Amino acid sequence: MAESNERNSEKLVTHCCIAGGGPAGVMLGFLLARAGVDVIVLEKHADFLRDFRGDTIHPSTLEIMHELGLLDEFLKLPHEKVYELNAQVGDTRLTLADFTQLPTRCGFIAFMPQWDFLDFLADHARRYPTFRLLMEAEVTDIVKEGEPITGLRAQTPAGSLEVRADLVVAADGRYSIVREKADLPVQELGAPMDVLWFHLPRKPDYPAQTMGRFDSGRIFISINRGNYWQCGYVIPKGQFDEIRRQGLASFHEKIAQLAPHAKDQVGEIKSWDDVKLLTVRVDRLSQWFRPGLLCIGDAAHAMSPVGGVGINLAIQDAVAAANALAEPLRERRLTIADLQRIQERREFPTRVTQGLQVAIQRRVIAPVLGADRRLKPPLLLRMIASVPWLRRIPAYIVGVGVRPEHIRTPEIRDAR
Is 145 helix (H, G, I), strand (E, B) or coil? Predict the structure, then answer.
């Protein structure tokens, strides 16, 4: 339902209004609409075409697509399959995770442009009459009536927009405007690094393995994306300005040393505009909810890029939220206890995963970035690489995660 006035403003009313059209927001909107809940998703951009977003679709997410009956159609989209995770520490190459033995239908991580993933979800969500995705709708504030949060304000090309809802969901990322306006306390866990993202062309005869390389003072990630490499150069936090000061030629030389297979292509980085800075931030809300508000995904817990599991956690949050909230929202009987149950279910896997990430940051990444001599792989990594069944442990942590969620909501097509 909508109304407008002479000041070019619009008001909408819905059961659930979601801020943010990323993986958590679009997946939650899709699942709620599928379960007969009236839902509006607000996305500030005109499309999903933004580079250097996380492109990993984990086995647990692929399992969810299977449970929705969409897996075969989904895997027709262009993607690259990664069956194991490899690393080079100094001069030693190691296989550290084997996804083929996971208890899932897909024993691989699918690397797919996130815009394709989001477009796929949004297209299927639009088949339900209770789903609305509003693009170019940038959330600017929350609406409150006393203590409860009752809606969101946004700015669109047509003017201002106000959406009233029984529930507002913040899925607008680690710099969430909603959680900021709601004044929810944030616990910073810290990170010793930032990441520089860029593309390098890949020739057909180049090695195909996705790999991380750890060397004295440097960490480099190369992800096979078919005709190009998506590269991540890990640097000590706050050092990007110094790297820029040393010049592009020096940067080219560093990359060529770390990625000999791409040394002839480093000249394709023609300016610093081709390099994107990911400022790493790891934090967690102590409370994910207020009356009328729930935070999920990075808005509730910003993850380290270690393991590339942030999208997986966000999707799992969305599934858990839909499972718990679809019926109360549809029947207009939502309580704060319903919101609390989401945090109680999802906080444990978040804490465990972030704990592992922070430990790796402190015990592996920070020492490597501070090293001044050739590295040798520690005993634990050599054991994992040499014992095949041990590779299943990191594969499960990365590919499935702690407390994976499953679809529990029914499909209701004629909710209106």
Answer: coil
Residue ranges in 35-183 assigned as alpha helix (H): 59-67, 71-74, 114-125, 177-181
81: tokens are 């399959």
Q: How confident is the model at residue 231 (pLDDT cuts 50, 70, 90)?
A: confident
**pLDDT beyond 60 at 319:** yes
Q: Which two tokens stand for residue 393?
A: 């442990």
Rounded percentage of the chain residues whose pLDDT exceeds 70: 94
DSSP string, 21-76: -SHHHHHHHHHHHHTT--EEEE-SSSSS--TT---EE-HHHHHHHHHTT-HHHHTT
Model pTM score: 0.92
What digits encode the pLDDT tens for the residues 151-198? 999 999 999 999 999 999 999 999 999 999 999 999 999 899 999 999
By CB neighbour count within 10 A (0-12 exposed, 13-18 middle, 19+ buried), where does 1 fall? exposed
Closest CA to 176 of 44, 351, 55, 343: 44
Query: How high does pLDDT run on average in the chain?
Result: 90
What is residue 3's predicted lDDT score, i.e. its pLDDT? 46
Compute the distance between CA of residue 348 and CA of residue 354 in angstroms, rounded to an integer: 10
> Is residue 169 within 8 Å of 149, Cβ to Cβ?
no
Long-range pairs for 360-367: beta carbons < 8 A, 24 or more residues apart: 360/304, 360/306, 361/190, 361/191, 361/192, 361/193, 361/282, 361/304, 361/306, 362/192, 364/214, 365/192, 365/193, 365/219, 365/234, 365/306, 366/192, 366/193
Which CATH number among 3.90.930.60, 3.50.50.60, 3.40.250.10, 3.90.220.20 corresponds to the domain 2-55+113-189+282-369? 3.50.50.60
Rounded distance, CA 171 to CA 43, Å?
10
d(CA 77, CA 112): 8
Structure tokens at 403: 């407390």
